[in-house]
Design a protein that fits this description.
Number of strands: 0
Number of helices: 13
Shape: globular
Structural class: mainly alpha
Protein name: Acyltransferase 3 domain-containing protein
Organism: Telluria aromaticivorans
Largest sheet: none
Keywords: Membrane, Transmembrane, Transmembrane helix
Transmembrane segments: 6-25, 46-72, 92-115, 127-148, 160-179, 191-219, 225-245, 257-281, 312-331, 343-365
Mean pLDDT: 89
Length: 379
Amino acid sequence: MSDRFVSFLLISRWAAAIVATMYHLRFLVFVHYDAVHSKTIYTKGFYFVTGLGHESYAVFFILDGILAGLLMHRHRSGALTERAAVGRHAGSLYKLLLPGLIVGATLDLTGAHFFLGSGVYTDFPELSALTLSFSALLGNAFMLQPFIVPSFGSNSMLYLPSYLFWSLILLGVFIRAGLSKPGGRYLQLALLVAVVFVMPYPFLVWAAIWLAGVGVVFLSESLGYRPHLLVAVPFFAGSLVLSRLMGSKSSLLPQPFGDLIIQCGFALVGLGFAAIAWALYPRKAQDGLANRAFIANESADSWSAQTASFTFFFHFPVIMLLVAMGTELLGQALMQQPTLATYARFACLVGACIVTAAFVTRVAAVATNVITAKRQVSG
């Protein structure tokens, strides 16, 4: 696969992870924009970029869909079985989820025991509801959040890997149903209707965003056409601005219509980013499909990509504990005005999240290699 496209996937993954981390951290470190005393152009730019948290989710879902799509399309070419394709991608989610739950539980228990008085774990219900029960932990380990159990601990973002997991499983079942004879098409239609009626609408919106990423691969592999990058980039930029505007006007509508407007804005951002990915997708003549799938997934499994993904999914427990420690031990007040000092503190906290993710993914990789080696020896 072309170096340009692989670099695009990795850089985009990092951008989504950093923006999501900054989005949540800003609520703890800085006052809301309406309370800012001096609204300079730099402040406005900072609050705009750090306000793109959910839009970064849409970017990440497109990226994950592209990787899943490469595996699925490779299955169609006969280079990989459908079950192996689904299992391969589901396993990559669990490689992050299991250490993430362990680390999150450790950090949250530490924070709840030593730094509960900071207010970080009690005064920000819009960010976190500290659910540390064993049933929630077990349910999250089986990707049952938020359908049956709440997200575990302070990490309210755990619904995202669950949405990705069940989108993948349902797509695998859908493909499998189409292979049934007779009546495969009817089984697929019945499954589609059941999902639409049973699953909550936020899941349907995010599953559709993920499927747009899958669609990028199938469109690129079946069509020679590519949209021009000079068209795709402005479309994506416009979708970001429009999504923010739609979010700011959502309060004018009664619920659930207001929230649905917000979700549609995120879907629009996903389509805008999918257009960029489609424009950059390498031509068929450059390399074979099996090679494209192999290189893209090997890139996604690299330490850098895994660190970015861990930062994206599991930054919540890290920032909650670090901010709580700073509040109680160093007297750093929550929700301060933007100053050079608070910007510096903010940057250090983002850096600490990345360093933590890098350490955890490295330890997890070493542990996985040791376990694999032991199995090979015993086998």
